[in-house]
Amino acid sequence: MKKTLLAITLMLATVAAGAQTMYDALTFSQNNYYGTARSIGMGNAMTAVGGDLGSIGINPAGSAVYNYSQFTLSPNLTVSTMNASYSAYPVSGNDVFTNEQVRKLTRFSMPNVGATFNMQTGNDRGLVAVTYGFVINGTNNYTNQMFASGQNDKTSYISSMAVNADGFDIDFLNGYRNASGGEIDDWSHAYYNADDRGWWAPWNIVTNAQSGAIGTYGNVDDPSYYWRYIAATEGFNNTGEKDADGNYIYDIFLGGPLNQAYGRKVTGSKYDAIVNVGFNFNDRFFIGANFGLTNIDYNFDEYFKEAAVDPADFKIEYEDATTYFTDYRTRYSYTAEGTGVYGKIGFIALPFDGFRIGAAIQSPTSTQINERWRHSTDVHYENSSYDGSATSPEGDYSYTLRSPYRVNAGLAYTFFGMAMISADYEMTDYSSMRFKDNDGYAETFIDVNNDIRNCMGKSHMVRVGAEFKPVPEMAVRAGYNFTTVPEYYLENGMKQTLNDRTNSFSVGLGYYSKGSFFADIAGRYSTLTDEYISPYADYLSDVASPLILNKRDRFDITATIGWRF
């Protein structure tokens, strides 16, 4: 099978800057509300309910609903489950996924802690109370781990690296020459400098070249010898013909079948630290405001391995020796830390007994993101003296992300003082996300910002909840919410909506003592949209590179203990 050099968009970081994508913006902007066990148990349908510290991040007016102070602490256990299966060479519309692998990852967190302090004004009418509060609520949890594997006899990860390296001088990649062709002795040169075309070599290409996983091939007298690459998993035959530039033409082929494996682990979370104030007017109208500080901690680690089923298929001849390829691993690690600020205002009104309406609007969040990343590559042969490895320096970059505004509205109704139902709607317009550099200019990110504008849209979240108190000391709760995925794809220049949804189901119990103590527990099961992952880009004209189908779900159990005073 002949290799055809295709234009491939590199998705990993280059040395010039971090390779921000619209998916990074979405990852750091999306909310998956946590809060207290009561709010989770009711599906976070709390816009018109209030009276709970988990509700304050959804509607700031919730702090003013009840005329008491309170303190809560809410530990949480998350279990993420991923079922990944592999298609070595998918065919569009007829993919066959096999070899399902299940991975679970468990994480402990504290998605809610805080207190509110209610102060009575002494007035019978008008402003009857003011509530101040400080609350930390979880707004996302990035816990997940996956693994997929399969056998492939048509394409190779290292081959895709060889295709992407085409055109870079091998001595430039290895740090022996600068862009002008002058000899130097600086192994890190390729990380921080462009070549003679003004191109920066992607980090993964550099580590593959420096480890020896890819290298030049054929007749050393060919004009393009130092700019063309072959993978350790490939062989070549000289056809005896030459191209217009005087280079011999070669058939490049995969040596034999490979065992391939892809793994990924993600940890981290997003929290909002909220300074809140709420006002109670006549016990009928409540208004509140939040000043929010968003904190993001995101850690991403992935690797790809391939190993020869039979090393004898992968013969590599040097001038003085022969060896055989056995196995390979490449790894990419990435961390991001961010701090953002936003404001939010909301109200809750009781037009008549038992019925509540509420709404809130949150400003865009301006978040400073600081990210770091690193690539590494290892390749092994039967003769270990030819083994090689390379690790890039740690890259770092800082920028600003403007996350979108949010609008939510809700209704709640209480029956006979012992049961409540509630419903919320929340809209977020992700097409308004924007990257900017630290000087406030968006021109640096003009391409990715255009991607966001063209391929992101509005997300709609619907939440419903119910609470029933068979006796004053006990509450039984249930909730449901679903969220649309705000992504589009372009077909013939027209936006087409992805029919993706995220669904969550929750149940909970609450206990209220005759004193100030109360305790709640809730469980939530979420099914996330199926994920498709391409470990490396297509590089053959007639065969697609592997595709992974990843089915995802998550279970959270949250407990809250609190005191009212």
Question: In terms of topology, how is this protein built?
Answer:
Elements: H1 22-29, H2 37-41, E1 70-87, E2 98-120, E3 127-141, E4 144-152, H3 157-165, H4 170-173, H5 189-192, H6 203-211, E5 214-215, E6 230-231, E7 234-242, E8 248-254, E9 258-281, E10 285-308, E11 315-317, E12 322-352, E13 355-362, E14 365-381, E15 388-391, E16 395-403, E17 406-415, E18 419-429, E19 434-436, H7 446-455, E20 458-471, E21 474-484, E22 488-491, E23 494-497, E24 501-512, E25 517-533, E26 547-564
Antiparallel strand pairs: 1-2, 1-26, 2-3, 3-9, 4-9, 5-6, 7-8, 9-10, 10-12, 11-12, 12-13, 12-14, 13-17, 14-15, 14-16, 16-19, 17-18, 18-20, 20-21, 21-24, 22-23, 24-25, 25-26
Structural notes for this entry:
The protein has 565 residues and is mainly beta. Helix content is 9%, strand content 55%. The protein folds into two domains: 22-153 and 256-564, Beta Barrel (Porin); 159-254, no CATH class. The protein has helices at residues 22-29, 37-41, 157-165, 170-173, 189-192, 203-211, 446-455; strands spanning 70-87, 98-120, 127-141, 144-152, 214-215, 230-231, 234-242, 248-254, 258-281, 285-308, 315-317, 322-352, 355-362, 365-381, 388-391, 395-403, 406-415, 419-429, 434-436, 458-471, 474-484, 488-491, 494-497, 501-512, 517-533, 547-564. Helix 3 (157-165) crosses helix 6. The chain is elongated and about 95 Å long.
